[in-house]
Specification:
Helices cover 46% and strands 0% of the residues. It is mainly alpha-helical. The protein has 2 domains: 30 residues; 139 residues, Orthogonal Bundle (Cytochrome Bc1 Complex, Chain D, domain 2), CATH 1.10.760.10.
């Protein structure tokens, strides 16, 4: 009787896991409009490319360039938290107006402003909405994260088809 119950329990667990996997696989990926919004915010409002480079490879002539995003191992939630909250103790600014308040609902990395002290990142010059933060994360996931060297396709997606900035990728 006990082994029958164990078998039923394993079967139920397997069915539940299969169901969850099916739901996860069926979850919609970011659509083209979200990615386009993310690109606009990345380029024009948050100006992420000033530190991370247009391709997210950190290749930009600045005194203090940001790290390459291409090899990063973050999921969407991690990317969004980084955009929203910045990176404590680094030059990565926070882009969410209410970051680091004393409200636990808007705390960053589980810390309030008092708890983070002098490690609190600087604010950005243009705060983003949650929708914009999510769209930038979608763009980073679709066009930057986990990619190798920048390609002509990526360059033209960023600068536009036929852009002179992409000539070095043409062969």
């Amino acid at each position: 009787m006990r082994s029958k119950l164990q078998s039923l329990g394993r079967a139920a667990a397997a069915a539940t896991l299969a169901g969850l996997l099916a739901v996860a696989l069926a979850a919609p990926a970011a659509n083209a409009q979200e990615i386009a919004l993310g690109l606009r915010v990345f380029k024009q409002k948050a100006v992420c490319s000033l530190c991370h480079g247009w391709a997210g490879d950190g290749d930009y002539a600045m005194d203090n360039p940001g790290p390459a995003l291409r090899p990063a191992k973050l999921d969407k939630a991690g990317i969004m938290e980084t955009i929203r909250c910045g990176r404590p103790g680094t030059n990565m600014p926070y882009h969410f107006r209410n970051a680091y308040t004393n409200d636990p609902a808007t705390s960053c990395y589980g810390m309030t402003e008092a708890a983070i002290g002098d490690q609190k990142p600087n604010p950005t010059r243009a705060f983003l909405s949650e929708a914009e933060i999510g769209a930038v994360a979608d763009y980073v996931i679709a066009w930057i994260l986990g990619r190798g060297a920048p390609t002509l396709e990526e360059c033209e997606f960023y600068f536009g088809a036929g852009a002179a900035s992409c000539n070095k990728y043409r062969n």
